[in-house]
């Protein structure tokens, strides 16, 4: 009887210890929503162009630990879909990956209603973009509904 009691107490202690090492739940309200701003190129003589961008961040329905970032550029007042990034959120940082052969890494720092980020390519060897966006209400964005185009990587 004493062995069972000791075993039960040990199990509860171990479960409590394991819980303290688990990652704290993320407050998704801090990053979800519509963000708008500028994405500036950093590599001269490249196919990159400075862009006015709109990012829509939503919880990933397939994975509650992920965030989906749908990226649009604004051309002649119209939103053009560029692609979707899969992001993991930790504290006030988003780490995102695209779906291109360039091995692109996107990192964003969230500070209230502002978010700044970078795109590096070639396994982090080349800083390709600097991004600064601000949280927007959909009614304040450059254009109403996004134009749906086939995804492409930048």
Description:
It is a single chain. With 154 residues, this protein is mainly beta. It has one domain: Calycin beta-barrel core domain (Lipocalin, Beta Barrel). The protein is 13% helix and 47% strand. The chain has 1 helix and 8 strands, in the order H-E-E-E-E-E-E-E-E. The protein has one helix at 2-21, and strands at residues 33-41, 51-59, 66-75, 78-90, 93-97, 105-111, 114-121, 126-136. The longest helix has 20 residues, at 2-21. It is globular and about 75 Å long. The chain starts with a helix and ends in an 18-residue tail after the last strand.
The appropriate CATH architecture is Beta Barrel
User: What percentage of residues falls in helices of 4 or more residues?
Assistant: 10-25%
Low-confidence stretches: 10-26, 146-154
Indicate the proportion of strand residues.
Answer: over 45%
Q: What is the highest CATH level, the class?
A: Mainly Beta
Mean pLDDT, all residues: 79
Radius of gyration: 20 Å
Give the name of the CATH superfamily.
Answer: Calycin beta-barrel core domain
The count of β-strands is: 8
Helix and strand run: HEEEEEEEE
The CATH topology assignment is Lipocalin
Largest sheet: 8 strands, antiparallel, barrel
Strand order in the sheet with the most strands: 1-2-3-4-5-6-7-8
Total of DSSP H or I helical runs spanning 4+ residues:
1
Structural class: mainly beta
First-to-last CA distance = 66 Å
Shape: globular
Total domains: 1
């Amino acid at each position: 009887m004493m062995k069972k009691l000791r075993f039960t107490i040990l199990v509860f202690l171990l479960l409590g210890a394991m819980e303290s090492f688990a990652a704290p739940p993320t407050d998704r309200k801090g990053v979800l929503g519509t963000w708008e701003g500028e994405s500036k190129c950093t590599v001269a003589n490249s196919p990159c162009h400075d862009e006015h961008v709109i990012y829509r961040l939503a919880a990933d329905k397939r994975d509650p630990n992920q965030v989906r970032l749908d990226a649009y550029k604004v051309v002649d007042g119209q939103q053009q879909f560029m692609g979707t990034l899969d992001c993991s959120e930790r504290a006030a940082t988003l780490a995102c990956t695209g779906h291109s052969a360039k091995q692109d890494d996107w990192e964003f720092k969230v500070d209230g209603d502002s978010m700044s980020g970078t795109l590096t390519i070639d396994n982090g060897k080349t800083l390709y973009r600097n991004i600064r966006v601000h949280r927007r209400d959909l009614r304040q964005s450059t254009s109403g509904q996004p134009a749906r185009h086939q995804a492409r990587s930048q």
